[in-house]
Design a protein that fits this description.
Its EC number is 2.1.1.170. The chain has 210 residues and is of the alpha/beta class. It contains 7 helices and 7 strands. Strand 2, helix 5 and strand 3 form a beta-alpha-beta unit. It binds S-adenosylmethionine (SAM).
Length: 210
Amino acid sequence: MKQHAYDRLQDVAGPVSRETFDKLVAFETVFRKWAQRINLVAPSTLQDAWERHILDSAQVVRLGGGAMRWLDIGSGGGFPGLIIATMIAERAGASIDLVESNRKKAGFLQAVVGELGLPARIHAKRIEDVHSVIRAPEVLSARALAPLPLLLELSAPWLEAGTTALFHKGRDYRQEIEDSAHQWGFDLVEHPSLTDTQGVILEIRNLRRI
Ligand SMILES: C[S@@+](CC[C@H](N)C(=O)[O-])C[C@H]1O[C@@H](n2cnc3c(N)ncnc32)[C@H](O)[C@@H]1O
């Protein structure tokens, strides 16, 4: 079973060391413990958390290439931010900032960072309040945070300055792109999700206000 899970992780995320895999397994254990006490994800998705949340998150790391400075906004129970943190931990000097305004969830994120020794800083604040605090990440991620027009508004201070976005999106993503078009110009690559047949990861660069 464990070998199968390791192989599947590498199918989705590319080459991953055994140590990183073991850390992701440790993350899942801590996550499950906390998820019994506080609402970290929809309870109906808990049973399949490895595929639905951990692997779903892991796939963005490959799309980010060798980026060293990451930012994840609206991190909730750590997806994809803490999974990215776990996977970039072997890159010397790499780090990620996570922004989550819910205090209970931010408390969970901070506890996991301490317990697993992850290269992540937790900001228990609103995204709107950290625009000038978190400077020039190479890649910004967000999953299940907001429809694309609002997501672009929230991330514009970084994206307009050259950060690349990697946004998990579900089946309605084409409508969301259309809804953004009157207000925003951007370069777009649609990457089919490897864990959700109807999902995509939108890679957005060169954001500009129209
Ligand atoms: C639906 S959850 C998704 C969490 C996680 N990204 C995932 O995919 O499981 C959205 C999260 O964003 C946080 N959030 C929403 N608006 C925010 C804001 N303006 N600033 C910071 N966090 C915010 C919420 O507290 C919530 O935890």
